Each structure stands twice: as structure tokens, then as C-alpha cells.
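Hi everyone, sorry if this is the wrong subforum. Our group has a chain we'd like a structural model of before ordering constructs, and none of us has done structure prediction before. Sequence below.
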Amino acid sequence: MKPVIIAEKPSQAKAYADAFKVKKNEGFFDVQPCDIFPQGAYITWGIGHLVELRDPKSHNPKWAKWSLQTLPILPEEFQFQIAKGKAKQFGVIKKLIYETDTVINACDVDREGSNIFYSIFDHTRAQNKTIKRLWINSLEVDEVRKGFLQLHDNKKDLLMYEEAKARQMSDWLVGMNGSRLYTLLIQKKGIREVFSIGRVQSPTVYLIYQRSLEIERFVPEPFFELEGTFKAEQGSYKGKVKGKMKVHEEAQELLRKHQIDGKIPGTVSRLKTEDKKTLPPKLHALSTIQATANRKWKYSPANVLKTMQTLYEKKLVTYPRTDTQFITPNEFTYLENQVEAYQKLINQPFNVASRTPSKRYVDSSKVQEHYAIIPTKKIPTVAVLARLSNEERNLYEEVLRTTLAMFHSNYLYQETSVTTDVNGLAFLSTGKVEIDKGWKVLFSNDTDSKASKEPNLPKLSLHEQVKGKVVIKEGQTNPPKPYTEGQLIAMMKTCGKFVEDAVENEILKEVEGLGTEATRSGIIETIKRHGYIEVKKNVVSITEKGNVLCQAIEGNLLASPAMTAKWEAYLKKIGTGTGSSELFLGSIAKFLNHLIKEVPSQLHDKMFEMSTEIDLSGVEVATCPTCQKGTIISRKNFYGCSAYKEGCKQTFPAILLKKQLTVIHVEDLCTKGETEVLNGFVSKTGKSFNAKLMFTNGQLKFNFI
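Answer:
Right subforum, don't worry. Here is the predicted structure as C-alpha cells:
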């Protein structure tokens, strides 16, 4: 029988098909017999999550209405359904699986890839099938063919699925219970908003809220420094006395003590020059390229992930959803063999400093499912590069230059430190002289702000007499700066430093903070979409709605990054076979029961205020249900597809029959084809009515059932 290969999405399936001779059919590729598949094979695909958890009312009709009396929502058995509009493709997969004896999971090699495959496979109810796992990091033809020759068994894959399923169910439970609980209680306070609660999104919003409070409550404090300007034989330079003083009188007293008054001679009492070096940067993981791209080009983390995925599917870079900055000797070998060809792509030839792998970059023990993001073996032609968008070109070059830096020489400079003695008071100066730019020539367009601020010192000699002028300089402390989107990604990864408890701090370090490498940008987009934060000119700020949420969850475990870190740590145990899904979901149920019992009294005396409408224009809502290429984006007075220039005319109104359609309503229409029952529509005759809104064949319709 022909084995059936299941890819995560059509583009991935097409990349696999490129490695073989195939015939295209509706919903699958027919691989012709070859050395790898002597009888041929079928390649089919999901469309992301073909199978999803049912909503609460599908589990139990009493959960249809949002009510505190019906909480907690704890299904005895979770029920799944085929996602809206995806039944046809599911039917194709099911038929192919039933007609074979071997199924190959070729979805992404991560937790969600395993979840997508097994949720589809389990929903077909197929039995007695041999399941194999494709385990690759590149979609190049050679790598794809090698991967199919070296298929893994599904032992590890099944554990990853158990972990993913436990994560999916726990997130559903927290979201369904927490969102209803807080929304209903806050609405009792007069705020007519829906408040989405999430295991990762809520503590993320709270950390942004904490930063906003630090900025808001910051009181600038003056400080005073002693600064000397010195004129030597070869030029002038400045120096400062170590330490800052809180009051002007303290600085004056120090001057009186050393009998310094305005202009006074000094002596170069210490002169030390050291040769220093800066090593080439480490290779990129997803979070580092997201932070770098945000700093350099103000790209959002979500846009970086989307663009990196496109480059991966174009076979130009390796798998982007990686959390490691290391490669194995195998990758180093092909990079080293092609280093000159990579240099030509950026037209910057250089002599390779070393062809020996360094532990700074090459360490198999640091590589698990995926290695660092590097260029593939494929050397793109000029025509291929010309067809890349600006974002694709910038990110491809960033990966390329960072990889090439591994083969370049160190950045060399001399650092000079000078102590100038003025009547026994030491004034300190430092300067930097560049010796060899080394790997930094690859990033010559970057503005190295720290280096540019380093002053150049004149040529000085020990014991040289200099003319000096000393003044008291006043400054003031600055508040912390709000996060950029790139810094927010880094903060989510390193948020353990905000936690005082040593044990919790260690757990956060172990699981690398909030979310995972693959999900952090999605979490940021989610909290944008829910109106908790806004991003203007790359600066992240909390909204009034975000303030209300954080005031509501303050003092609760939902605000604590340590809580979600503990859950993530236990999920990893499930993934290694040392933890139990039943035990984990049982602890989630206990947590929710505790929440439902305690939160009403916690919120009883709290007062909330929201005065302004939240501007959600520019927020990405969901993939366009019509063209499946663009993204539905909220505009000022409507929702429209980003691919309108390519001809997609899909829009949704912002107000329909006097009813405001929120981002969440439009997201439901795009992803599920229908909303919950919405209250407050007004007919042309002036009569108010309630109905579900449905999206069918490009049209909005009412469902009065």
C-alpha cells in the first residue's frame, strides 16, 4: 500500500512534492514510484488545525449562556469537531488514511505539529496503522529526501502530542472559565466589555502594566557630578569624579576639601591601554532575530515570524521556530564548504579567519529538535533575490551576515583609561580606538550607538601636566522606558528577573519565561487584538481596558508569570513521559474552583474606570476566509483584507444594524463561520432583536435559532 504523508499546510506539502515526481490531485499529491517509495506515496495536508475543541455549549447546553451560576465549565470528556469550512480536506485525508497501512507525520517538528497531526488522525478513528515521523529542519530537496529515508518512530511524537493536548485543554479551561468570570464581575461594575483571560496572555499584560506604573509613579531625582575639562599638549579631553551626589552642597564641599576653584592644573597620574576584542555574534534563534529586526527595522515579532516562515518555505533558511543558537558539525560542514558562495550574495568577500568549529556556535549537546536559523545549502540566484520583498531580503541578509560572522575575525580595539589628579581628586576618562573592524564590516550599515558615544582621547603621556577647568554638573534620574515590541519578546523570555522568589525564578529560567519561542509573537498579537495594549511607533503601551484587566487580576495567580511557568514546567514533564495529563488537568480544575470561589470577594470593593473608546485600527484579526492569502485587518470604520491590491474585496462592517462588531466577533466569523448570539441589533422598523451572525459564501446572514 502507498504510505500517506500528512503535511501541516499546502505550502509544506508542495515543498515535499518538489522532492519527487508527482501528479496533482484535488487535496493531495500522488508521488510516483521511486527509490524512496517503491510503490509511490500520497502527500496530503491540513490547513493548520483541521480539528478543534468544541465550544462550551456543544459540550453542555447549560453553558450556552454566560452566567456565574453555570461555572465552572469542566467537561467530563472533551469533544472535538472539524473546523468550519475544512470538512472537504478532512474527508480527503480520512479516505487516504483508511486505504493505507502506513501514515507519516510530516507536520512541523514541534509540540503543535504533533497536535495537528494526531488531532486529525484520532478524529478519523482509524486503527491498526503504522505511524512514522519525518524529522527535518530544512525543506530543501536533498534534506526532504534524506528525511524520508531516515524516518523516526512515533514514541517521542506521541509524548509531544500528550503535552500539546494537555496544553490545549488547559488553555481552553482557563480561557472559558476565567473570561466569563472576570467579564461578568467587571460588567457588574458598569464596564460593558468582554475581558479575555489566558494562561500566558494575562501575566504578559500584567508585566506591561507594571512597567507603565513604574513610569507613571516615577519621581525624578536631581544629582550632581564633578566634571573636568582638561587641555593637554596633543588636545583636550573630559573626565568625571566617580559617583553622583544628591545635593549641590555635597559637591561644593568636595571641591572646598581639595581646594579646587574653577581653573586649576592637573596631572595624568594613571594611563592604561588595553587591547580588547568583541567576538562575532551568536547565531539566531527566533526570539533573537525578532528582537534584532524590531530594533533595526521596527518589524513586529508576528511579521518577522510570518516572513521567516515564507523564507523557510522558499528553502532559503532553516526551520525558524527554534529556541537554540547552536548548530551541529553537519551544518557547520556545509556552511564552511559554501562560505565563499555566501559572501558573493552580499558582495563582501573576506579571508576566513578559521575553518575549525567553535563551541560558541557548534555544540550538538545544545541542539534538540531544531538547530539555529542559518542559510540553507541553496544559493539563490540574482533573479530569486530580486523577487524577495524588502522584509524578506532584510531578514535573509540578517541570517546570512550573522552566519558569515562566525567565519570572520574578531572586532579589535584599544581601550585607554586615564586618571587625572587635581589636588588629590581623581577624574576618570576612557577612550576607545578601533584597530580592526573584523566581523563588524558585515554590519557596517548598523548604527553602533554605544561605540559612537565613546570619545577619542588625545595622545597623552604619564605624569603629563594639563590645564583643567572643573564645574559642577546637574542632572536628574530618568524613568524606565516603555517596551518596544522587540524588547517585549525578550522580556517574556527573561521575566524571571522580575520575580523575587528564588524557586519561582529558577522555574522561569528553566522554561525560558512566558510562552514558547513559537508562540510569543502570537500572544502579543492576541493581547493587541483584545485591546489590552497598543503599539504606536514601535512603543508598547497599556490601554484603559488593559488597566482594568490588571487591576482586576492584581494579587491573583493569573497575574503571576511564575504560575504559568510552573504549568509549562509540568507540561514539559508530560512531554518526557514523567508527568501525567490527568494529574495536570486535575490541578487546573482545582485552580479554577478556587478562582471562582475567591474572585467575587476580591473584586467586591474594587472600582474600575474606562472613559475612552479603544482604537483597534490596524489590528490583524484573522486570515481572510475568502482568499486565504491576506489578513483581515481592522480599519477605522470597517474590517478589510490586506490583499485588496491583489484583488480581494472581502470586508466586514464595523457597525451592522446599529450593533458594533468587535474584533472578536469578526475573528469568529473568519475562523468559525459564526458568532455567539449577539444582543442589540435594530431592524429597519426600529425593533431590537438578538441573533447569531453567520458568514456563508462571502455573505453575512442572521441565524435566529
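For your construct planning: The chain has five domains: 4-50+86-153, 165-217+481-603, 222-279+411-476, 286-405, 620-703. Residues 185 and 604 are 9 Å apart (CA to CA).
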